[in-house]
Design a protein that fits this description.
The protein is an alpha+beta fold and about 55 residues long. The chain has one domain. Helix content is about 25%, strand content about 25%. The protein has a two-stranded antiparallel ribbon.
Amino acid sequence: MTGGSSGDGWFRMVGTEPRLVSNTSIGPAGNTWLAGSRLGDTARALYDEMSSAYGGR
């Protein structure tokens, strides 16, 4: 990937459902590798709370 890919999601299939497991957050200027932190229960709780408060559900 090239510059500007930060923030892109990393997904994996769980059964037949895609699950967001990380997002691109670091990598060198030479674009030789990318990394991102693993998203877990805390990230899910934050997502659910923000969606409820601001997502119009």
